[in-house]
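Quick entry between incubations.
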Amino acid sequence: MPKIVTVIGLGYLGATHAVAMAEFGHTVIGIEPDESKLRAFREKKLPFYEPGLELALSKAVDSGKLTFQSAHSETSRNAHAHFICVGTPQSESSYAANTTYIYASGSELAKWMSPESIVVGKSTVPVGTALRLKTEMSESAGFDVDLIWNPEFLREGNALEDSLRPDRVVLGGGTAKGIATLKEIYAPIVKAGTPFVEMDLQTAELVKTAANSFLATKISFINAMAEIAEVSGADTVKLAEAIGLDERIGKHFLKTGIGFGGGCFPKDIRAFISRAEELGVGDALDFLRAVDAVNLRRRQRVVDLLNKEFGTIAEKKIFVLGASFKPNSDDLRDSPAIAVATKLRELGANVFIHDPKAGEQVSILFPELTVVDNLAEGFSMANAVVLATEWDEYKQIDPEVSGTLMAQKVVVDGRNVLDVERWRNAGWKIYALGRSVANEVGGL
Ligand code: UDX
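Done. Structure below.
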């Protein structure tokens, strides 16, 4: 039976969830205080790029199932469920997550929700947040708020698919009645035979942070191996292939390169470190500091390589391919590509940057970087090229053709997606991160 739901906060998570809930047939009210975002959604336009989502948004709005409001209204009293999807960014002055929006949305919701409805938390929060939220909301609402923590594992670039067909659903806390309501709302996911794992609130909060920490650790593990490989003549692409065939290790998240970025991994591992310290067990997560440090060293590695290649990169023209933190997204939050470009710029290089989707945003947010719309134009100006984000169109670049545009043919493959032999045969000097074998042994 279709339900009425509100989705509070329409960032990547909330916007995708709202569209997914409408696709499941529910009546969805998306709540977003930012007027410009709200206008965009009402005009069926996504304020960010996410493959397939704008079309699905448009269908949901046209069907009348998805509407938008800047705040709760009487309609919220009739809702069966309220999904909290607000952001928890890194605090400005510390590693801690800023949970202000969580508590603020909870206290506002407590004024509008009915005692029969459920509250479902989907944001990534420090362990302990949900319990405090439940207590505060119950006190202010005057009844026991039925709160379920249901972390979201969607990946940008694959967000809608991950929401419609997740590989597992984690449900923390909640009454039996509340859990039953949520399972009705998620009926297509239940029907697909997806595992539902039920637990308490704290464990559900931890599942999300633990999953992200584990994945970030895998990436930094292979990038730590890259540091060894680069000075010993080994090749981490082969190494990852070989260790990944051990099913206890698995082949995923072992791609060597300039490391992870985005709105999740960096801030989530730091928030986890901060929370563990607050709980008096900071030592338990010492390894995550190393994970963060390895990751940040990868960005510096590109700068060091180019400095070594040219003696100094001051005045050199560097063409950076890709700005977003991963392909199929225009998200620039903590993007390794932007970090490298900015470092190069600070050292006096002239930096040109291309991105299939994020160009306009780069010119607004990073005016010191010159955005180039045309690949050939970028190549023709450059002394060296850095492939920083593995968009498909960069994998298809013909090294013969692009090479004719350059006097000096130097490329740093920051994502290990170029065919080293092919580029080398076309006369390029190619540096592939974590692959001394692809370069000259010890010559990185
Ligand atoms: C991640 C989690 O995957 C998702 O479950 C969670 O809900 C949010 O955080 P996302 O940030 O969208 O999703 O991207 P993901 O595909 O996990 O990649 C994160 C970063 O790691 C990217 O910068 C990517 O380039 C990098 N990465 C990934 C590597 O450097 N090597 C790899 O092997 C895999």
